[in-house]
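chain below, 196 aa
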Amino acid sequence: MEPRKTRPPDRRGPPVDNRPAPLVVRFADEIAHNAGDLVLDVGCGFGRNALYLANRGATVVGLDRDTAALRFISDQAPRMITSGALSLRQVDLELDEWRFAPNSVSAVVCVDFPPVFRVLRSLVASLRPGGYLLLQTIGGHGGNYLELPTPGAIRSVLIGDFEFGCFTERRVGPGGSAAATALIAVKHRRDDKAAI
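prediction:
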């Protein structure tokens, strides 16, 4: 049998549980009140984190390749957002060029986006000094551990330029595999070196 050369189809319906990720809830007010400019929700899916942050007053740009998910958010947003703003962009982060300039966004949220490590340097470069990065990898269940970074890989990209507010890493996969899940909240250092 030949390996599959195409991607799986877009998701077909909204999730049963559309609550924001606990990591996003924990840091949402800090991001919304101190971020200033754009907040990116990378791989936003059906918008659970983007909508939550917009309702905290943030100006959020949701990025995803799934047109059905983006249509769902677009239909829901007008009646769900009471403050802040939300715009959406269809982008395939694995194939399309990264379109956000260095130092152009105040926060990046990336929850359950499988190829996060492949785009991590672009996400980090887009953050302004004092900006936030909230990152939660996929859980490492079944075969998806193959899309996870190796232990320490994400931390090695962030160390030195960020103050860590939260960092948890856990090895996953069959015995001997070099894969790890990560849950990370960091703030880009500025001259005052304020930690989150």
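The two ends are 50 Å apart (CA to CA). The domain at 22-188 is CATH 3.40.50.150 (Rossmann fold).
thats it, cya
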